[in-house]
Amino acid sequence: MANIQRTLSVHFYTRGFKGITHDEIIKELEKQIKLESVKSIQLPEKSCVVTLSDRDAKERLVQCDLTIKNRSVKFTDVENTITNITIKDLPYEINDCYVATQMLQYGNVVPGSVKRGYIRGTNIENGSRYIQIINCAPTIPNKTSFGRYDIRMFADNGRTECIHCKQKNHPSYACKDNQIIVNAAITVQK
Asked: Which domain holds residue 146?
């Protein structure tokens, strides 16, 4: 099978959109780009893929948000999978630009993607940061430091190693080795 490059295709995930139609997508695309630049719109099971004829239209779609069925959607490059990373234990005072700069060592940071975590129902921050990275490194360390601050990181897409067994196919809390360690500690305490 030939290696296909999809350099002018963008997509968004359609999870939660029941019965999304081509017409709804076209209506929103018209607000941002000329329809002449759209080559195809595909609606496979879990995403909407739009292939364009020029790079300017692609850049425009990637940079803006569309509203479809009263929900905001963000197009991303088909060739680049976004990895969502959660950063814990970072002091409140650390600037978001500093966080983005530090994360460049793991891939390309999506502009404007650094978000701060809040305690539910309040405006009080909890010290967490959420960031999106494109072309992410294959492995993200569980623990590292930003300057003198030790932090913990968790990534989706199976990129964070389990702290117990060093495998990447499950999160640390679901590790079978962790259960063995916990059970052994309980036995010793008795």
From this structure: 82-167
pTM: 0.55
For residues 52 and 9, the answer to whether their CB atoms sit within 8 Å is: yes
Using the 8-state DSSP alphabet, how is residue 162 labeled? P
Whole-Å CA distances, 101 to 24, 59, 95, 96: 38, 22, 10, 9
CATH number (domain holding residue 155)? 3.30.70.330
Phi, psi of 51 (to 5 degrees): -105, 130
- Based on the domain organization, do 100 and 71 belong to the same domain? no
Q: Can you give the pLDDT at residue 190?
A: 56
Count of beta carbons in the 10 Å neighbourhood of residue 133: 25
User: With DSSP H G I counted as helix, E B as strand and the rest as coil, what are the percentages for the chain, rounded to 5?
Assistant: 25, 35, 40
Q: Are residues 86 and 21 in the same domain?
A: no
How far apart are alpha carbons 84 and 114 in whole angstroms? Answer: 10
Q: What's the pLDDT at 104? A: 92
Chunk the chain into consecutive blocks of 10 residues (it has 190) and report each block's average pLDDT, rounded to whole numbers: 62 79 90 91 83 87 84 77 86 91 90 88 92 85 89 82 76 72 53
Of the candidates 57, 29, 31, which has an alpha carbon nearest to the alpha carbon of residue 41?
A: 29
Buried/exposed 111-120: b ≥16 CB within 10 Å, e otherwise: eebbeeeeee
3 state DSSP class of 36: helix
The secondary structure element, H or E, covering residue 47 is strand 47-52
